[in-house]
Amino acid sequence: MPPCHGGGRGFESRPVREKSFTNSEAFFMPFYVYIIESMVDKTLYKGFSSDYIKRLEEHNAGLSKYTSGKVPWILKYVEVHEDKKIALQRELMFKKQNKKYFEWLFEQPTNILRN
């Protein structure tokens, strides 16, 4: 009996190939949910970004229509997520919460600003 299927007529098993990585597997691109506070009136703004520091700079430069009238802003909370969809869902959940919840949240270990 021949060692491979089909007796060597082109039905041999394929050679083992090296796994190629897709962009999503080759590196981790984090997404951040952030909360900033206006130094003018203590208003909280909740957002999401792949670069929360750059986004804070944009808020403070007046580049965001909603936040431009209450400059300057400071970071109060940042949490990291591996998945954009989850970060967006978390941002939406934050927008439904009250001030007391945020006072509690700012002290939680999920806040990477506390590390």
Features:
single chain; 115 residues; alpha+beta; GIY-YIG endonuclease; 3-stranded antiparallel sheet; 4 helices; 3 strands; 20% strand; globular
Summed up, what is this model?
With 115 residues, the chain is an alpha+beta fold.
Description of the structure:
- With 115 residues, the protein is α+β, with helices and mostly antiparallel strands.
- The protein has one domain (30-114): GIY-YIG endonuclease (3-Layer(aba) Sandwich).
- The chain has helices at 23-26, 52-60, 84-94, 99-105, and strands at 31-38, 44-49, 73-81.
- Strands 2-1-3 form a three-stranded antiparallel β-sheet.
- A hairpin with a 5-residue loop joins strand 1 (31-38) and strand 2.
- It is globular.
- The termini are far apart.
- The model has no long low-confidence stretch (mean pLDDT 87).
Which CATH class is shown? Alpha Beta
> What would the CATH topology be?
GIY-YIG endonuclease
Task: Please identify which CATH superfamily we are dealing with.
Answer: GIY-YIG endonuclease
Q: Roughly what percent helix?
A: 25-40%
Structural class: alpha+beta
Radius of gyration: 24 Å
Overall CATH architecture: 3-Layer(aba) Sandwich
Oligomer: single chain
| Helix/strand order | HEEHEHH
> How many distinct folded domains?
1
| Terminal-residue CA separation | 66 Å
Mean pLDDT across residues: 87
